[in-house]
Write a structure and sequence with these properties.
With 286 residues, the protein is of the alpha+beta class. The chain has seven helices and twelve strands. Helices cover 30% and strands 16% of the residues. The longest helix is centred in the N-terminal third of the chain and has 20 residues.
Amino acid sequence: MKLPSLTHFFTISSFLTCLGLLATACGPTDPDTPKPPEAKYTLANVCEKIAAPTCAMRESCCTQASGYDETGCMTNATAECEKNVADVEAGIMTFDGEFVDACIEASQPFSDKCFLEIPDLFKLPTDLEPCTRVFAGQLKQGDTCERTEQCASSLSDREIVQCDEMTKKCTATRFLPIDSACKLGQNVKEFCDQGLYCDFEILTMKGTCKTATPPGSPCTPGALSFECGLGYICDSMTSTCIEARDEGGMCSTALDCKSATCTGGMCVKAKPIFNETQCKGTAAMP
């Protein structure tokens, strides 16, 4: 998902310039030449400056979920940032402060919603792209990681690379284009993109991404009927494609629910995007 950073290109050209190929560029500057404006966020000050706006963004979700403690949140945000700065200084991560404000701004709508639904997931790779540029990890998919920032983002805008909480490996979740090979099963990390569905063989659970049946159109109900696409279901009463059910609706599988969360035969909210420690810091710890 991450586009190549301009710093990757400037490194070589700056090196050649200072060797003398463009000698005047690295020589003494004219004292009357105005200095460029100082960067708002630098590696030296980012952790001090980023905590307040980060927690202001988180507050919307935290107050809907576990509660909010500003001091605790800022302590947590600062500690998270300091880990990333240490990785930058160790040479296993890069930093670009120009994208800090854009990342916080892009994150705000998701914080306001807090409990994401299936349609929101399709927007994550593109909408949160600025966040992949602030602290950019270099670990490859399959490498051992401690947190998502350490993982190198994908060049594709239809992939999300995260540090898997269970395996502690950098793992990509992909949204597949039409005609791609697909499969169903536990721990699948590839899904047909919005407006598509996996047309699969029941014996192999493998198939091909095809155009989903539009909402309101006739469909064939069944326990394994996915022809309406993610976020929609084939209603057993009307045999038409309808939106997946809201919180409180009846469900038999997670995909019956907009939240992709079915508990005790009822659709419930997904987990909030910020956990209790992120919202309250050490105050949330036992």
